[in-house]
Write a structure and sequence with these properties.
The complex is a heterodimer. By secondary structure, chain A is an alpha/beta fold. In chain A, helix 4 crosses helix 5 and helix 7 runs parallel beside helix 8. In chain A, a hairpin with a 2-residue loop joins strand 1 and strand 2. The two termini of chain A are 39 Å apart. Chain A folds into two domains: 218 residues, P-loop containing nucleotide triphosphate hydrolases (Rossmann fold), CATH 3.40.50.300; 104 residues, no CATH class. Chain B is α/β, with parallel strands linked by helices. Chain B has a single domain, classed as P-loop containing nucleotide triphosphate hydrolases (Rossmann fold, 3-Layer(aba) Sandwich), CATH 3.40.50.300. Chain B is built from eleven helices and twelve strands. In chain B, the strands form two sheets. Chain B has an eight-stranded mixed β-sheet, sandwiched between helices. A four-stranded antiparallel β-sheet of chain B has the order 2-1-4-5. In chain B, helix 3 packs parallel to helix 5. The chains are: A alpha/beta, B alpha/beta. Chains A and B meet through helix 8, helix 9, helix 10 and helix 11 of A and helix 6, helix 7, helix 9 and helix 10 of B.
Chain lengths: 343, 356
């Protein structure tokens, strides 16, 4: 069966006054029906731009994309803006990070939700409003029948994010792209929203692309993970194998630099330096200036993405050999492995 | 006999060697109506009776969700806001009633690092000036001494001393936060307040700053008050942790004690809500989901302010009688009528054992 969404060799460039920025560089992945794909990476690694490109939301005057984004076999990169408008919100929907700025402050919640229905379906205003109410109840907004005519400022952050989720799911989309959906929220609210997303995903069967910088969120929600660094995918695989056997030194750094409740460490693993500028990315492996294991070859040659022996789904792009990877990961993330073993 | 650090509702028993003692501190912001004739109609109880004592070299972490009053608390202690009532004693001296002028010489002992490294550095000043300004204000050394000191500080926080003449915009977020730390260190303070110092940073940079803060504490014997909403970060850096909810302390305990055996249902809910970067545990995790949102601090719930959301809510007690902070273990203080017997617990288990 063909995947629902197939991204092939996607590249996105932005033209700026300082030169061309390659924000997404040969990114390929697939999303199947009902799958939850997590994309992790730090700010500026290209995870958001990847999704904006899929949705066709980059400014065409400033950006250029190549490659293919095949949604049910149709290439979205070459689709007309009219066709994209049909798909956006109906078949592929997006939940943005900041619920404070993504809702229109001068229209009521009910009107904004109903608009999403009216744009895509041939239904009456009354039906659209009924559908909006149904969705507000589905995302567990208390007393939804009374709150439907409230304005965004009358809702708290967590409630607004629920409204955003309701809006994204209102047309039963096949794919929901969630761009840092819980980053702006408090931890108890985050737990509520993640639980809600999991439930809705189960009930509606949508695929979710979950963009986040929080490895904890990925571990709990995603089936598969892409780790991005400096516009490229450095590691990919099933969530379990990425977390149990991380292969790329950048992934090790990400895991080790995270203080966590279940592991005791005195000092965090520190990735030295800063992510590189995308205007002038380093040659060879882009991680080599920050990588403690960098060899001569890393400065010169871009490492190909190679499957892990015995786990064809798990790939990473690093010149280190398999034995070294295993040894170094064990040494660097010792405390995490020990806690795992003790369980 | 209680230990010296015991916090009770109204007072802190002290031995006199604490660096900082805060007693029953409150900050109420008036809510007024009317333009010409303003009339106070209510008060936002941002901080409502917080007490704690802090020893030299210790790190106190303060956690709580947005709006719980943790930043207001710190601003009151630093006298950037005048507290409504309560006492602040720094090195044995009561500083509560001191004027701005009287505070000035004391400020070199208490510095602050702010959350947003983009907004907290003056964009029009050079880094050397930003870091050295406090030296100048306190009249420390001459121009040459100050320059040397600033360059030394840049090196201490891991920046290139030659960047002395650069502007803040030439630095990344993590580097700017290092500048913020260098600025706080300039006058050799004893106590540093860190208000969400890493929450605006990426994880890899966050780890750099957390490691730096730990190193500096060891090297200079610093005392930290570390505010954050991220429980993982607070656990990593703190010796003792205070959990705040709606302007009040819900629980105060040693770091290990609090995270292993929390007693307050709110602490339990917070801990259960933290995503674990381990798929095996993470997927089976059942967070204790609190009903609704944090209530409006203008009109907080009666008695225990957590009772409308609490899975252990016991009618007739929690909504009638305000729980006082009481000692429940060694240096472990909690404000709850029905503290948790064990941990971990699910919401159902919490509710079931309520009456027992």
């Amino acid at each position: 069966m063909a995947p629902l969404l197939e991204v092939r060799d996607l590249r996105t460039q932005f033209h700026t006054d300082d030169g061309t920025v390659q924000a997404v560089d040969s990114v390929s992945f697939t999303v199947d029906k009902g799958q939850v794909l997590g994309i992790v990476g730090e700010s500026g690694c290209g995870k958001s731009v990847t999704c904006l490109t899929i949705m066709g939301l980059n400014d065409p005057r400033l950006s250029m994309s190549s490659g293919e984004v095949l949604y049910k076999g149709e290439n979205l990169l070459t689709a007309s803006s009219r066709r994209l408008r049909e798909i956006r919100g109906a078949e592929i929907a997006m939940i943005f990070q900041d619920p404070m700025t993504s809702l229109n402050p001068v229209h009521s919640i009910g009107r904004q939700l109903a608009e999403a229905v009216l744009l895509h379906k041939d239904s009456s205003k009354k039906e659209a409003r009924a559908r909006a109410l149904e969705m507000l109840e589905a995302v567990k907004i208390p007393r939804a029948d009374r709150r439907i005519d409230d304005y965004p400022h009358q809702f708290s952050g967590g409630m607004r994010q629920r409204v955003m989720i309701a809006m994204a799911l209102i047309n039963n989309p096949d794919i929901v792209i969630a761009d840092e959906p819980t980053t702006a929220l408090d931890v108890t609210t985050q737990a509520q929203i993640l639980l809600l997303l999991k439930e809705l995903q189960r009930d509606f069967g949508s695929a979710i692309i979950m963009i986040t910088h929080d490895l904890g969120v990925v571990a709990e929600t995603a089936d598969d993970v892409l780790v991005m660094y400096s516009a490229r995918i450095v590691e990919r695989g099933a969530t379990d194998s990425i977390f149990k056997q991380p292969r790329h030194p950048y992934t090790w750094g990400l895991m080790g630099s995270l203080p966590r409740l279940d592991v005791n460490v005195d000092r965090l693993v520190q990735i030295p330096g800063q992510p590189p500028s995308l205007l002038r990315p380093p040659p060879g492996c882009r991680f080599h200036p920050r990588c403690p294991y960098a060899m001569t070859v890393c400065h010169e040659k871009e490492p190909p993405s190679v499957a892990v022996p015995g786990d064809p789904e798990h790939e990473d792009a690093c010149h280190l050999d398999a034995a070294a990877k295993q040894r170094e990961a064990r040494q660097l993330l010792g405390a995490i492995y020990e806690t795992e073993a003790a369980r | 006999m209680t230990s010296p650090e015991t916090v009770t509702d109204t007072r802190v028993e002290t031995t006199g060697d604490e660096l900082l003692v805060v007693e029953n501190l409150t900050k109420h912001f008036p809510v007024t109506r009317g333009i010409v004739f303003q009339k106070q109609i209510a008060a936002v109880k941002a901080v409502d009776g917080i007490s704690f004592a802090l020893h030299e070299g210790e790190t106190l972490g303060i956690v709580g969700e947005s709006g719980c009053g943790k930043s207001t608390l710190v601003r009151c202690i630093l006298k950037l806001l005048q507290p409504t009532s309560g006492r602040i004693i720094f090195e044995g001296q009561d500083i509560t009633g001191l004027s701005r002028r009287q505070m000035r010489p004391l400020r070199r002992n208490m510095m602050m690092v702010f959350q947003d490294p983009y907004a907290s550095l003056n964009a029009r000043k050079r880094v050397g000036f930003i870091i050295g300004e406090s030296l100048e204000l306190h009249g420390i050394g001459n121009a040459d001494d100050r320059k040397r000191r600033v360059q030394e500080l840049l090196e201490v926080v891991g920046l290139n001393p030659e960047h002395y003449n650069r502007f803040p915009h030439e630095f990344s977020g993590g580097q700017r936060q290092r500048i913020g730390v260098a600025r706080a260190l300039a006058v050799n303070p004893k106590l540093i307040f860190l208000d969400e110092p890493v929450s605006a940073l990426d994880v890899s940079v966050q780890a750099q700053i957390l490691n730096l803060l730990k190193d500096l504490q060891k090297e200079f014997g610093l005392t930290y008050v570390f505010i954050a909403h991220d429980l993982n970060v607070v656990r990593h850096i703190s010796d003792r942790v205070m959990v705040m909810y709606l302007g009040k302390a819900a629980e105060v305990a040693g770091r290990d004690e609090l995270y292993v055996a929390p007693k307050h249902p709110y602490t339990g809910a917070l801990l259960s809500a933290v995503p674990v970067p381990n798929p095996d545990i993470g997927r089976s995790r059942r967070p204790i989901v609190l009903e609704g949102d944090v209530p409006n601090p203008i009109n907080p719930p009666d008695a225990c302010n957590f009772h409308p959301r609490c899975p252990r809510f016991h009618e007739g007690r929690c909504d009638v009688e305000t729980p006082s902070l009481r000692e429940i273990g060694r240096r472990h203080i909690v404000a709850c009528h029905y503290p948790l017997e064990r941990w971990p617990m699910t919401a159902q288990e919490m509710a079931q054992t309520t009456g027992a």
